[in-house]
């Protein structure tokens, strides 16, 4: 390995950890509280994004299912061709777009508005079109991407992932979701073995 390759690789730890440390400075308790309340009350939750944001939205939908909040990732392409029918009035759609101008998301936002679906947008650009049309906006902070050209979706993906983790953690407390409940729906793997072993004495 080239010496420069190793140097740049090691810089990734500092760049991304610095981003996470700085994120707390952009935390808006009012917006966050509103987002948690909407998600906790929703019968169904959708997540929608493109590229790296879309990949993180898939992760968020899975996290929500793990705490028994029915959710699914809705592809922006499919949303405009019927998939948005998954959501009903009073449900929630979570959009993720670092710049807040992702063209593919704008028609989906309009569908949600017409259907009475609450919208939450995670974006770095809180003055963007998506942000202005959303019910709740959560600020995404990114110091810089980890590649030399500051263009790959690296640190921005980490920042978005952390926001989704923070939301899920708050939802666990908000809804009173328990380890016993998780043991029911996660019997597989090492996690399932540990959880169900812990609760054997409780009738699980």
Could you characterize what this model shows?
The chain is built from 9 helices and 5 strands; from the N terminus they run ααβαβαβαβαβααα. The chain has 204 residues and is of the alpha/beta class. Helix content is 52%, strand content 11%. It has a 5-stranded parallel beta sheet, sandwiched between helices. It is globular. The model has no long low-confidence stretch (mean pLDDT 93).
Features:
about 200 residues; alpha/beta; 5-stranded parallel sheet; about 50% helix
In brief:
With 204 residues, this protein is of the alpha/beta class. The protein is built from nine helices and five strands, in the order H-H-E-H-E-H-E-H-E-H-E-H-H-H.
Task: Explain the layout of strands and helices.
Layout lengths: L2 H21 L5 H13 L3 E5 L1 H16 L4 E3 L2 H4 L12 E5 L9 H10 L2 E6 L5 H5 L2 E4 L15 H21 L3 H7 L3 H10 L6
Parallel strand pairs: 1-2, 1-3, 3-4, 4-5
Helix pairs in contact: 1-7, 2-7, 3-7
